[in-house]
Amino acid sequence: MKGKFIVIEGIDNAGKGTQSALLAEHLRSKGFKVLLTKEPTNGILGGISKAALNKELTLSNKALQLLFCADRAHHLDTEIEPAMQDGFIVLCDRYFFSTLAYGFASNINYKWLRSVNISFRKPDLGIYLDLDPKTSLSRSVKQVDGLQLFGNIEKISKVRQAYLSIAKEFHLKKVDAKGTVEEVSQRINKIVDKFFNIKV
Ligand SMILES: Nc1ncnc2c1ncn2[C@@H]1O[C@H](COP(=O)(O)OP(=O)(O)OP(=O)(O)O)[C@@H](O)[C@H]1O
Ligand SMILES: [Mg+2]
Q: Which atom of ligand 1 is found nearest the CA of 10?
């Protein structure tokens, strides 16, 4: 059987890492072979992207977006596509919707962002974890003072607004990411079980 490609998206702290691990466990318990992966990747191109995000090196904003795309192309060619050929469900924590949402929120032209990402494989199922910016920040251990909080809220709100319209454009399933880990996980499992026709 050819595999399926599932993507989990959302703003910082929406619970992508937590929920993709739980979903992988759920699908494995139903007998599926699952590859859990993420972007930016742990490879060399993902490493440079993360270094740029952490300001360990300076890149122009457009160059950074193209670096995310290069990392993505390599990820698809060397990991995602081969695993799918092998019948795996590939579960990816962040994909090109992250580039679109964060890139747009950093004032990059959306048409350009779309044009450099649109030819990548579309997910069979895209899940967008929707969270309000205040809850996102309350889950963060990184916030230190009110000023930072204010700056972040503005930026995160912009990213969330971008995600909301991207979710519509690309038919991502919107899931309320508020509530306990267990509650959110059940919301996701319901969608995924329906997609795979899993009887509960
Ligand atoms: N439903 C939840 N309720 C409360 N806290 C949560 C919930 N889900 C995740 N968290 C906590 O929020 C933090 C961020 O979660 P997680 O790393 O899964 O999010 P993420 O979307 O992957 O974030 P990032 O974009 O930064 O990678 C973690 O400390 C996690 O334990
Ligand atoms: Mg994460």
A: 21
**Taking the CB of residue 199, how many other CB atoms lie within 10 A of it?**
5
Span 75-104, pLDDT tens digits: 999 999 999 999 999 999 999 999 999 999
**Fold category of 4-195 in CATH:** Rossmann fold (3.40.50)
Tokens coding 27: 């699908």
> How many angstroms is it from 178 CA to the middle of ligand 2?
16
Report the candidate in 141, 127, 103, 128 with the shortest Cα–Cα distance to residue 11.
128
Q: Please name every residue paired with 89 in a beta bridge, in sequence order, or none if there are none.
A: 4, 34
Pocket test for ligand 1, best of 9, 12, 13, 163 (most atoms within 8 A of CB): 13
**Judging by beta carbons within 10 Å of its beta carbon (0-12, 13-18, 19+), is residue 44 exposed, middle or buried?**
exposed
Q: What is the pLDDT of residues 134-177, one digit of tens each?
A: 999 999 865 555 555 555 899 999 999 999 999 999 999 999 99
Could you count the other beta carbons within 10 Å of the beta carbon of residue 22? 18
46 lines ligand 1 (CB under 6 A): no
